[in-house]
Amino acid sequence: MNQGEQVRYYYRFSPGKRLLHATLFSTFLGLALTGLTLRFSYAAWASGFAHAVGGFGAILFFHKAFGVLLTAAFLFHVGNIFRQVFVKRKFGMLWGPESLVPQPKDLAQMGAHFRWFFGLGPKPKFDRFAYWEKFDYWAVFWGMGVIGLSGYSMWFAPFVARFVPGSWFNVALLLHGDEALLAVWFIFTIHFFNTHLRPGSFPMDKVIFTGRQTETELAEKHPEEYERLVEQGKLESFRAGEPQRWFVTFGMVVGFAAIATGFILLLLTLFSFRR
Amino acid sequence: MNAWQRCVGVSVVVFLLTSVCWAQGSGSLQDSACLGCHGQSGFVDEQGHSLRVDPKEFSSSIHGALGCQTCHSDVTEFPHKLPVKKVACGACHSTESSDVNDSVHEAVMKSASSPACLKCHGNPHSIVSVHDSRSPVYALNLPRTCGTCHGNPELAKKYGLPNVYALYIDSIHGFALTRDGLLVAATCTSCHGAHKILGPKDPNSKVFRMNVPATCGSCHAGIEAKYLMGAHGKALKAGASEAPVCTSCHTAHSIESVRTAAWQLKTTAKCGSCHAGRAETYHDTFHGQVTTLGFVVTARCWSCHEAHEILPASDPRSSIAPANLAKTCGNCHGEVTRSFTSYDPHANHRDRTHYPGLYYTARFMNFLMLAVFTFFGLHTILWFIRSMVERRKSGGKGEETASD
User: Which of residues 215-254 of A touch B (CB under 8 A)?
Assistant: First the structure.
């Protein structure tokens, strides 16, 4: 695949989506780092980190700052979806092959994927978003709801307590911490593997950084989408130039830094986990 | 005995003793005769030990007016017979002498070749008042004097004593004495007494568990009063020998300032050494996590429960009585509603009976965690194996080749 001129690139993610992912993972790492420090307060690394970055005041400040940034990005994204669907009338976002909404086909493909794992059938032909990609996407929504709501209610506890009983804050901290741990562990194991580290993508799927994939990648990872685009003659409208060398390198550096941070946090939390 | 009575008493004794000496007339020796030899520098015994008495020092000492023979009553002629008898301080200081004989220092009293009193009071011929800064038992000098034995690691080891001098000198009492030069700072004798020092197991001891609050209270009267009103003080009064006393939390010798972050961070562990269950649930909360992390930002035990006047929630005077909660929580959280105070700073997610909401939330999160990782764990492992199999089948290429 190294005969440069023959490799054709196609866009998968717009700059807006890439920026959204970049904001999401940077704030997520920041939130995880500052939040896990409190969740694992009894561990030496947590206390050491907290003191090194300027104390609990600094930890709390950055946690809230990252939280606000992530919330803003999330709300912007949701607002954009509404605009796309209801203003631009792109109803294909709600249902159909291009949609992120789970559909019966996803369940069928999941079954087929498992059969293929055991060598009992062919590999299913995924469309623009495979079922595990949809799960990753909606998991963020669930996490945002659970972690965000519990987090903000603890931040503004005296105010929130005018509307809910104080015992809610007991539940809120538990939800906040456990859901965060679930999210952190999920991202740093399952998401990392499915997207970047599995043999088909190893060591990193750069599409989220460069926004573009090669024709081979498109045809192998999203065959249904590829065939549809070819059939409809739309493929060439997604045609992209070869990503610049520095841009790929930049994406690799940022991506590997994120993956490395994730793995360090994963190991630290696994080794010091206590119920 | 107040100072006036003491002054009169001492004057009378001195007057009587000098009269007695005077009346002995030619049978007795004048001090000048003794000092004829003992006043000379370089006057030593056969082993080379100095036998010199500094005439100036002696005359300015508290016993200066008494003359040599008052203590060395067996010396009646010149030159005198040897050996000269050990002086019995108790002949005059009978109370102190019998007190020491009843104390933990009894053995020292019997074993010493010279009067044991001198171990603390120093050179017998230059003993000055306890209020004189030259005295080894003057408040500012006392810890060092006691420390000659109790700061000696070998002696501490031999008698199984903690090396208390080092602990004391680095304590808030030690600092008050050495750094701030306070005569009111507690020294060894403030807590242990001077002559009748008894072990902590002796019910008559000032440091016997039941007596500790009164001993500390002799200076910290206000705190003692609060302590006695609190649950710990009440339990002690009722005879509960396991009830904590001052030293249980503050230690006996290494008492630290309660204003330092280092000490405040240790308090939750101290309370938790008895209240283990409460400490555990506290550490599950935001308050506890921040404390464990090492910062004194959030509430610790006594922020809500008070340090000394600890009262159960059922007592209307208690800081955690329902009617007072808004004020107690408000100390940190500002103005809070009554509903805010229904937060439980000791909620237990393992306790279904008392915290069903929290319990079922925790179980649901456990289930969610287990379900997600069982499914995706399996998914990931199977996918990995299949990928490797496909790659091998096609000689390095297979499944998806795009990553190359």
Answer: 216-217, 220-221
